[in-house]
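[step 3/7] inverse_fold.run input=structure_tokens len=200
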């Protein structure tokens, strides 16, 4: 076999003799002691839940990992942002995986680990304007420049305020004021009765 990448032994001659339904650019053929194994060659994943809901003002991790059985030398990944599916995507990050020195922006930080196939981003102190669709894309020249992507929907919500203490304070103040009013009414009533009795 000619090449070995991520545990996959690659042979062009064997590849060309595969049945048509297996001869796809996104399939990796692995040969081992147990025989022939077919696995997905190029894939991007953003976790089990593609919808992330966070509080306004907090930091949020946008997870993204990739798999490639042909290696990722010279590969490129990028993130794009869309307000919704009808809006044009705006590129927020593009990196070549062979680059070691990664320049960070103020609020958008690369926190992944290329050696572990992790290309996640971190958004600092998100605002309501950050709500939208974030798409992680991966292009690998080693796999016929195939491009794969996955999308995360980010929803920013306002923190729910617990008004229990406020209601208790207001209720206490109301009860106190009510008691004072009752006392004043009783006092006036007593004074009125005393005056009436005195006149008689």
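[step 3/7] decode complete -> sequence:
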């Amino acid at each position: 076999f000619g090449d070995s990448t991520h545990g996959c032994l690659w042979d062009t001659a064997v590849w060309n003799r595969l049945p048509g339904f297996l001869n796809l650019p996104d399939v990796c053929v692995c040969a081992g002691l147990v025989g022939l194994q077919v696995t997905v060659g190029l894939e991007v994943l953003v976790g089990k839940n593609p919808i992330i809901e966070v509080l306004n003002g907090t930091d949020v991790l946008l997870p993204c990992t990739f798999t490639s059985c042909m290696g990722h030398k010279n590969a490129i990944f990028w993130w794009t942002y869309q307000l919704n599916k009808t809006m044009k995507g705006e590129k927020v990050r593009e990196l070549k995986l062979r680059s070691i020195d990664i320049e960070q922006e103020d609020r958008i930080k690369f926190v992944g680990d290329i050696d572990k196939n992790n290309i996640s981003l971190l958004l600092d102190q998100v605002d309501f304007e950050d709500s939208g669709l974030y798409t992680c894309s991966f292009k690998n020249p080693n796999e016929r420049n195939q491009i794969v992507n996955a999308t995360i929907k980010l929803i920013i919500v306002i923190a729910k305020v617990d008004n229990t203490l406020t209601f208790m304070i207001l209720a206490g103040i109301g009860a106190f004021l009510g008691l004072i009013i009752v006392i004043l009414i009783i006092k006036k009533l007593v004074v009125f009765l005393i005056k009436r009795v005195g006149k008689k």
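[step 4/7] annotate
Residues 1-27, 29-39, 98-102 have pLDDT under 50 and may be disordered.
DSSP finds two helices and 14 strands in the chain.
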